[in-house]
Amino acid sequence: MITISGTLSKGWMHQVLGVAFDRDYYLRPDRRHAVDCLCNEYAARTFPDMSLFYSESNLGQIQYWDEDQVLIGGIQPNMILGMLLGADFVPTDDQDADISPACLAGTSPADLPAPESLLHHELVKLFDDQIAETRGSPQGKLLAIPPFFWDGSGRAAIHGVLTSAQKLYGEGIFLDMMTSPQKCTDILRWIADAYIVLCRHFAQAAGLTITDVHVGECSACMVGPVPIKEFVAPVTSAIGRALGPVRLHSCGRSTHLLETFAQIERLHSLDLGGETSLAEARRIFGRDMPLSIAPLPRDMSAESTEPILDWARQILRDNAGGNLAFVYHLDIGYNIEMIYALTDFLKQQPDFRDLHRERT
Fold first, then answer.
1. What is the mean predicted confidence (pLDDT) over 145-166?
2. What's the predicted TM-score (pTM) here?
3. DSSP state, 310?
4. Is-contact 74 8, C-beta < 8 A?
């Protein structure tokens, strides 16, 4: 089975609609819902035959998006964790938000609070109140999507433990792997425990059953197989045991990590950068493992469709008939003609499944 779907970025929406992704957008559910609806109305009107909608890159799923869903605390996972640990939230009108960097730099694992104590933070209480208010709204039909979730599917979404540690501690975490391995292990385990506590709490508050978990290990391709094996795989396995089957995302070229990824317990699917070898992925994981892959940014912004179509042909050859999703995030500077061409090409494949037609 072959599919293709995409998301529109905040930068794209700010440019075409002038909407501002300010603090109120993230912390006032009524404004969030209004802006999200406006953006998705634009997507449906402008790209009527495409499986393309407005959401965070690779987190929301078009099959499960509902116009009545209200994202509460719809902030990137490692940023929420950072805010609970003292980082400042830094929204930007025309792009993704951020937090103040390395809020835990210079601290030790002993300084970390008990994961359960995070539930007493004022931010968690605010989100809890907003969830309850939305679920009890007079309209009766609004669907409260809590923090760490992006649609009603039940799929939790967190950043990987290494990616989160880099966000909270800075790049020094990579040095800690070599010089202070126990410190690094303790930090990564704490991050995993914190995510487990928070995901379970918010799922219960919103009446969601956790079905699986997206783990965005964006920093994985910055290290080799040994650190992944020693530090990341065991802790990610614990997340899988606690929350459900793992969809592991790794940015960039990750061919050298695939054998190590296979050691993660309950690994259900992989989301890979466009330079990763699909042939190697299929050799290791077989044809039945769901894989998704993103086009290269340089091809997305090219003037000619030849590079992106050549890439897609090679990906299909290497995929050897496996279960494969093409995913993309449309940002400023990308050429929409590349996506039209890629979509048209994939629709010609005999095993193509049209998510847009199924949804409409």
1. 98
2. 0.96
3. H
4. no
CATH number of the structural domain spanning residue 138: 3.20.20.210
Q: Which residue range forms the structural domain that includes residue 225?
A: 2-359
C-alpha–C-alpha distance, residues 256 and 297, integer Å:
21
- Other CB atoms within 10 Å distance of the CB of residue 51: 22
- What's CA 296's distance to the chain center, in Å? 17
Q: Does residue 51 contact residue 356 with C-beta atoms inside 8 Å?
A: yes
Concatenated DSSP letters of 118-134 = GGGSHHHHHHHHHHHHH
Of 335, 252, 261, 265, give the one whose Cα is nearest residue 294: 252
| Structural domain count, the chain | 1
Q: Which two tokens stand for residue 146?
A: 């809590």
Tokens 């979730």 correspond to 149
What's the whole-number mean pLDDT along residues 298-323?
97
Torsions phi, psi of 119, nearest 5? -70, -15
Residue 295 buriedness (CB in 10 A; 0-12 / 13-18 / 19+): buried
Contact 145, 72 (CB under 8 A): yes
Contact predicate 9/17, CB 8 Å: no
> What is the dihedral angle through the alpha carbons of 259, 264, 270, 275, rounded to the nearest 10 degrees?
-30
Burial class (CB in 10 A: 0-12, 13-18, 19+), 165: buried
pLDDT of residue 356: 79
Helix (H, G, I), strand (E, B) or coil at 195: helix
- C-alpha 17: how far from its chain's center? 24
pLDDT tens digits, residue range 37-72?
999 999 999 999 999 999 999 899 999 999 999 999
Q: Answer whether 88's CB lies under 8 Å from 177's CB.
A: no
Closest CA to 20 of 31, 4, 29, 30: 31
Residue pair 247/269 in contact (Cβ under 8 Å)? The answer is yes
- Residue keyed to tokens 């003037």: 303
